[in-house]
Amino acid sequence: MSSEVKVDTISEKTSANGVVIDGVTLKDSKISGTITIPVSTGTMALTSDISAGVSEIDIWLINADITADALPILDSQVTRMSKTLVEKVGTGMSINGSGHWTFPSTGYYELKFIGSVENDTNSNATDLHIDASDDNFSTSSRIFYARYYGGDNTRVTMACAMVVKITDVTNDKVQFDFNEVNTSTIHGDSTEFESGFIFTKLREL
Questions:
Q1: Which of 17, 66, 125, 169 has the most CB atoms less than 10 A away?
Q2: 29/83 Cα distance (integer angstroms)
Q3: Burial degree of 115 (CB within 10 A; 0-12, 13-18, 19+)
Q4: CB-based contacts of 103: which residues, under 8 Å, 6+ apart?
Q5: What is the structure's pLDDT at 93?
Q6: Which tens digits make up the pLDDT trace of 141-161?
Q7: φ/ψ bin of 196: left (φ > 0), alpha (ψ from -120 to 50), beta (otherwise)
Q8: Is the pTM of this model over 0.70?
Q9: In this structure, are residues 171 and 140 in contact, taking their beta carbons and an 8 Å threshold?
């Protein structure tokens, strides 16, 4: 025996519990559980509470060779990449004159620091760092450290990656360091990606 209920509004009986329909909870436009869409023509509308994909991607270039310590790498040394098929998604990152990066919104972000480095002196070392702060860089801690040892004029591409949880866009910030130790270079270009940073927002908090 089939039955049909026709109503304009279904309201929850107990505040904050939501309405459960066969394992799917509906609560203030938020949906948890599994929704099965039948094999037929139809339309499903997504609200802002359902992610339609990655909301932030931002790619920045180190815009010229750096041959001295950059602790951190400064705003004058980076340029947002904008080229064929490459552009930012969302609001994007910002960097101040002290080399501190501000996130556009709270959430979990993946940071990638890619450096094409060359040791100019035999047996020299090159360091790349990512530093983080939750108090606008009154204090900070190192969250990634990479070092390359190589012979005279040897060149490699180094990569650092980390995921950070941003809960306060005013105080939660990061910076990127290049430590040339004695004599080394991190190569950069104003239009092509030799070295730089990729920021991707993975999800909301």
A1: 66
A2: 38
A3: buried
A4: 93, 109, 166, 169, 172, 173, 199
A5: 98
A6: 999 999 998 888 889 999 999
A7: left
A8: yes
A9: no
